[in-house]
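Workshop exercise sheet. Pairs work together: one partner reads the sequence aloud, the other fills in the structure field after running the prediction. Swap roles for the next sheet.
Pair: D.N. / O.F.
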Amino acid sequence: MGRGKRNLIDVLAGLPWPVGLVVGALGYLTLAHGVPAWFARQGGPFAQVFAGASNPLGLLAWLFLALCAVGALASFLKSQRTRRLLDTRTGLESIAALGWRDFERLVGEAFRRRGYSVEETGLGGADGGIDLILRRDGRRVLVQCKQWRRERVPVNVVREMYGLMAHHRADEVRIAALGGFTPDAERFADGKRIELIDGSALLMMIEEGRAVSSRVIDARHRIEPKLVAAEERLIDVPSCPRCGETMVHRVNRRNGNGFWGCSTFPACRGIRN
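Structure field:
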């Protein structure tokens, strides 16, 4: 099921809100000043039209600026709503209660808080496809979101995403599904650049994202930036013994003991005591 064609406001609403303001300002300057100046230098009948005090493109310039401002406002409100969407999830039931669009935004926000830039594509829909494109460190990752709570994702869905990865020349594929995956799907993904994220793994990503956001807010309000930098230099953060990535401190829910876990979990499950 496609999402249909998108207009200028829809496109800008899917980008960071400052982009909409910048595009609007550049478009306004181009239509209000750049185009008239260019025609004035060319001579001919158009030069006479733009030589007057009134700019025939003035109304269009203001209209373009207004549309971009609306798109930027929509992007800002959407980002705030998405942040609240993640911060208010308390368990699998609260995730399952979301619509499929909000589920995609929730997954995207979880990856965004892990340092990825997230693009919501127009290639997916309620029935699946490429829902998100992640970018970080020059790598591009395709993501499909399945909000199936009582049904496991079969192997044909994983095969399809693997084919899309090759077709779009992406570096990796990730599939987030509340209900998990069939044994055949897990066997097919084993050893390939496919990461399967079930409900429990997604919930852990959400909790980590919420914890990161809380620490950032607390640091901004209570600690001077120079002290934060000094503290970070004093902390010896180990590398993952399995993949070499940076590790993060976590707490075992069962016994309350702390340990170091790989920052790329669940792709890598390396730990240190």
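Discussion prompt: Residues 58-87 form the longest helix (30 residues). What would you look at next?
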